Structure formats: C-alpha cells, structure tokens
Structure prediction request, 784 residues.
Amino acid sequence: MIEREVLHKKDVKALKREKLKAQHLLLLIFIFFTSRVLFLREIMPFGIALLIASTMILDKEWIMVCGLFSVLGYLTESNVLAAKTHIFLTVWVMILNLFIKSEKKRLFILLASTSILNVLASVFAHKYFLKNLVLYDVIISSFESLIIISSAYLFTYGLAYFFNKKNVELLKEELISLVLIFLISYAGLWDISYKYVSLKSVLAVLVILTSAYIKDGQVAASVGLLLGLVSSFAGNISVYLVAVYGLCGLVAGALKDLGRIITSVAFMITSVVVMMYANKVDVLFTLEVNILFASIIFILLPSSILDKLNLALDFENKREVPQKLYVERIKDYINGKLNIISKSLNGLASVLAERYENNLSKVNEVKGTVEKIANKVCSNCEGRHFCWQRETYYTYDVFCEMLRMAEKNGKLDIKQVPNSFNLKCVKLNEIIRQINFEMEIIRLNNRWNKKLLNSKIVLAEQIKGISVVVSDLVKDITKSVEFKNELEDKISMVFDINGIKYNDVMVTKNSNNKYEVTIYGVPCQGKTSCSSDVPKLVSQVLGKRMIRENAMCKLDENNKMCHYKLIEAENFGVASAVARFSKEEISGDSYYFGNVAPGKYIIAISDGMGSGFEAAMESNTTITLIEKFMEAGFDRNTTMKAINSILLLKNNSESFATVDLGIIDLYEGIGEFIKVGAVSTFIKSGFDVEIIENKNLPIGIIEDIEIESEIYQFKNGDMIIMVSDGVIDADNELKDKWISKLLREYSGGNPRDLADYILQRSKEKYGDNIKDDLTVIVSKIWKM
Prediction:
C-alpha cells in the first residue's frame, strides 16, 4: 500500500483503537457480499482480497470479526468446494495476521503466503477430492492468486480514504477502488425476485437513474456499463443488458434538467428502443417492469437524500473546501498581525497628538526669566539688598508685571514701568534692555516649539493615516475572496484551443465583487499576446470586459516566470482638458487629473495665496501631496488633514492654499466633491447646470479642519467644470452666475473647446487688467 499523505502511521494506530462506527458496519457488509461473488463461475478472490486490505487499516480484533463475516459469505455460496478452500484461506489470514508485527511487511507477507497457499489448496482439492487434476486447474488458481494480489493492493486505497477522518480530496486511485468495492458487493447480492420484479435489477436501475440525475450522462453511462459488466462476469445477468444500462444512463443524464419524471421516462423509452433493436422482445416486459419500479422509487426519493448524495459525490467542491480553509487560516493570521500593527500605529499617533497644558511649567519659566535678569543686572548693584531683601515680593511682582507688558506690547519701554519702581531703581535702562532681550529669546523658543508641535501633529496624522490604511486592508482581507475553479478550467480550455502558452490561471472575485484573473506563464520576449489575445478570450469566458491592470508583466527573480493581472474594465470613462493663463511668469495655480487607482479618477485644482513663485510653491505642494496620498490609499479626510498640518509647519508667515477636489468612481459613475476654500464647481448635464459651492476654509490657516463633501450621480455625457478663483472674479458682480449662463448656452461637447472658450471669455471680461492666475479644467464623462 502506498500511504497517502493524510493518513500517517499515527493516524492508522489511532484509527485501530476506535470503537464501532458506520464505516465498520459498511465494511462488514462489503466483505460479506464480496465473499459471495463467484467470478467466471469458478473462482472467489474478492472476499480474501478485501480482508487482506483491511489488515492495513483495522486492528487484529476487528480483522477477526471481518474474517467471520467473510466465512459467512463463503458458506452461503452454492459452490461447496470453492467455498471450503476459501474458508481455509480466510482462517489462514486471520491467524497469520495475529503473529505479524511489522506494519511495513504485513501486506507483502499476507499476499505472498495466501497466493501460494491458494494454488496449493486448489491442487490438493482437485487431486485428492475430485480426482481430476489437470493443467487448467493450476492455471485458473494461479490467475485467482494474481487477482487477489492486485485487488488487495487496489482496495487499500479505497479503505484509506473510507476511514480517513480528515476532509481531503479524493484521489483517482481511491475513487476507482471504492467504485470496485461497491460494484463487486452488488454482484454478491442475492437476487430476490417476485414474479417479474428482481431486487438486483431494480437496484441497478435506481443507481443509474440517481447517477444521471445528480451528476451527468457520462457518469451514469459509466456506472451502467460497470454494473452490467461486473454482474455479467459474475454470471448474474445477460451481456446485452450491459449496453442497455450504459445507453439508458447516457440519455437520462442528458435530460436530467427536465426533472425526475422526464428522466425516468427517457430511461424507459431508450430501453425499449434498444431491446427491440437487439430483438429481445421476449424479455422486454420483465425489464420494463423492473425499470418502472425503480423509476417510482427514484421519483419518490426525498430531495434531501439526493442533495446529500450530490454533496458527497461533489469531488470538485471537496477539493475547494481545503483550499478555502487554508485561505481562511492565512487570512486570520495576516489579519491578526495587521491588527496589531494598526493598533500600535494608532496608539503612537495618539501619543504624538497629545498636547499638555502645564501651568506649572509656565510659572517656572517666568520665575527663571526673573532670576536670570536679576543675576545679570542686579547682582553687582549697590541697592540690591534693599530691593531683593527688604522688598523682595514687591520687586518680584514689578519684574513679572514688566515681563507681561513686554509680552503684551512686543517691547518694554520706560513709560510702562511703575513710577514707584522707576524712582528707586538705578539700573532701570539696563533692566529694560535685558527684559526685551529675554522676551525675544522666549518668542523664538515659542516659535520653534510651535513648529515642533506642528511637526508632531503632521507625523501623528501620517501615522494615523497609515493606521487607517492598514485597518482598511484588514477589512478588505476579511471580506471573502471567492476562488472560481470552474472559470479557471474554462479559461484554461480556451487557452489550449487558441494556442496560448501559460502555466496556471487563478480567477478570484475581490471584496468589491469584481473579477480578477491572474495568469502565470513563460516570458514571451515582447510578443505581447497577453495584451491583445488574452484579454479578449478571458472577456468572452467571463462575460465581462477585462483589461490589463499594468502594461508590464512581473517577472520572478530568475526571469523564468512572468505573471500579470486582468481586471474588470471601468463602466465609465473620463476625458479631461485644461486651459491656463499666468499673471506672472509662474502660475500660482496647480492642477492634476488622472487615475490614482483602478476605478478611481481625481480632478484637483489648488490656488496658493496671491500669485507668482510663493503661491506656486504652496499650490504645487498641495497638489503633489494629494496625488501621492490618494495613490497610497489614504482616505480623503486623512489626506486633507495631513496636508493642512504640513502647510502649517512649512510656512513661516501666514499663507494658505485652496483645494478643489473631485473623486470619481468609474465603476458606479459616482462623484464626491471636496472643497476647502475653493470656488464653485459646475456640472453641465445637457443644458442644465448644477453648482457645487464651498463650505470650508482654505487649508494652512487653522490647525483643525472639518471636511465636508457632496455626492453626485453622473449620467452619460455629463461635464465637470472646475475653475480657480481668478475665473470667477472675472465678473465681480455676477460671480458664479456668468459661468452658469455661459454653460447653459454652450452646445459643444469637446472638453478642450469648452475649457478654451471659458478662458477666452474670462480674459475678455478682464480686458488688459488681469488680476489673478486663470485655470479651467473640463472633464467629460461617458458610459462605456
């Protein structure tokens, strides 16, 4: 026996200690009926073979029980001499098995000794009991020994799977073994009959009909042929019934979708045609009566039983179950690790974002400043004993008051000093100068502390954003990813027919319920069949328009294997055009439009404060960060807050940038518009125009910003018009209204023409006095 991977020695030992179960009862029944089979009307090899195969699975006590059932089976057979010799062989196997200690040699010892003893027993019986030993007897007994060896070896596969507790894939050898055990047991059944009805005939037809209904015609035809062949070899039925069973099973399987009644009627009609063609009219009535009884039982069978049989025989699904379980284990492991990372990052971000308001530290700072000034100025003053010893509290309060005045007014002068102290202090000017100096140092320190705080906030926002991305990744992994094995087989078949070279195909549905097809193959050295032929073929199989995710294939380390992914094409397309005018050499407006992820398209304009180089730097920084953050998978809230913090940290003086952002889902045709200090965006649908207005301050002004957005469902042919404030301000009186009026009157559909037209009209309204940079982006959306 070749040990299957899932049934190791420890598993066998554990199995041998088990108590009575359904598998044991079935095995006893199989051994009993296989022992009754008289093959070719002379030999009985199968009961011995199944008993020997059982020794590899069951313990010695169970083998004794199996042996007794085998003996009972032989005793019920009419061929007394054959039965007696095989009872002797059965007892031999039972006794010899008790003394064999080596598991590895058990099968070999039993088969070798039993085969030799079988020949010797046959020769002895024919020579001394029948008195007619001829060469034929030696040959037929040797042939029986060969059948015992081969059958026992094959039966071990089926029994290994039959007693395996793990949910594993059924191997081809195991399937063949189990089918043979069942068929041989069927051949050993008594043929109980009443008038025209035969139990074995009814059972055979019922099995074929059931196979046709829950599987297909090919399986039913195979089952019919095997039932007929095994029964004919055992001498139970006529050979012509082999053809009847096979052909009727094929026809019934082809019509199974029409229901059980039609399947049964088709089986009966086919049998009539075949029998009449074979000129077997004399037995036609008997056959049809048995088919009728089997059909009635088949029609009355509860659907739950058929469903259970279908599930038990669904080997494809059983192959997928371990795969899914393994994937789920991997997902759970990865989710656990990513959750730990996400929580750690979120905790770190919370720590960095904390702000401590420590009043004691402020008191200590004032006290330290007073001491520092007193040490520098008053330490060598002749009147220090009067000020700092006799009037300590008064002097300290005056120093604190002067510090507050310097902080409030930016600088301390002699007029702000209390008169009482002015008259007493002989080094007042020096004290004032030292206070102003120390206050300037404090201001610089506070400025740098604020920058440090802002940098911590930026870092906290970025870490928090990464935590959100990791958390979203966990959610995405947690969502079930469906593996489509049937579609993989179909795609593989189509590739083979069309001569596409590949090594493997994997079809999945992601968390967004979209197909993803990953194809592994040998590098094609630039022939690009994967860019033209493959997407078309895969699209035909899936019924979806599939495109390459990336233009370039990914190679392994040795450049011997490449793989690429096909994804579902978007349902909507976007074409964008921009028209610009710069007031100075460098425009203060920056923009971006394009895909940042599969199915996600963004349009963005940022306007830095004023115009020229500084405004360009602010807006360019904003647009670049938006693009990079969105490509990295950050959500829009995290993106905006991080950019706001970066601009606060980056600028020494008060400056800001507006953000006009549109995020378009190209699968669903839904747009989300976020405006942070930006002017209105216009959506032109036919001759109707909808305005999306700003609700938020520009970024870079305040530390905490709240982001609001508006959602819009696009229709085929809609146009998005996004402009900078310079375009709106071209008409100070009408503002948004002049663009709305222009769009309602405009009948063209080319984004480039419309962008140029709006820019030209803006210039005309300004005349020779253009006050700001002008930027217009027009995006047209259409359904694929």
